[in-house]
Amino acid sequence: MEYSERPWGSYQVLLSNAISQVKEVTVKAGARLSYQTHQQRAEHWFITAGPAIVTIDGVTKTLQVGESIDIGIGVAHRMAAPESNGVTFIEVQTGTYFGEDDIVRLEDDFGRI
After folding, report:
1. What is the pTM of this model?
2. Which InterPro entries match (predicted)?
């Protein structure tokens, strides 16, 4: 399965089929993913190491280990790790397309578009 290093951490694809994809995502302490949307998939995040700082449509909350959140298609979202710890979560994607080019970045700490 696919593994990818990113400036904020890494992810590994655990399962992929025509209607879903499952990833384990690790965010480095103090790092965060881009604030983004997707046009062809929804996501469900389940926190396995944290706590995690999650922003959904401009509302920020902290999720503890064992908690989860749903992100609908087209909803702006971001995952961040506090300075004190990294975050690991399981991401279940459902939809019609799971490619990395279905990311519309609204903000990004690393200058990506």
Report:
1. 0.95
2. Man6P_isomerase-2_C, Mannose-6P_isomerase_type2, RmlC-like_jellyroll, RmlC_Cupin_sf
Bridge partners (DSSP) listed for residue 75: none
pLDDT in tens, 10-22: 999 999 999 999 9
Residue-wise pLDDT tens digits, 36-92: 999 999 999 999 999 999 999 999 999 999 999 999 999 999 999 999 999 999 999
The helix/strand/coil state of 101 is helix
Inter-residue contact 28 to 40 (CB < 8 Å): no
104: helix, coil or strand?
Answer: strand
Q: Where are the domains of the chain?
A: 3-102
Residue whose token pair is 């920020």:
60
Neighbours of 89 (CB within 10 A): 25
Q: How far apart are CA 54 and CA 63, in angstroms?
A: 7
Closest CA to 27 of 84, 108, 86: 86
CATH architecture of 3-102: Sandwich (2.60)
Question: Closest Cα partner for 80 from 27, 36, 44?
Answer: 27
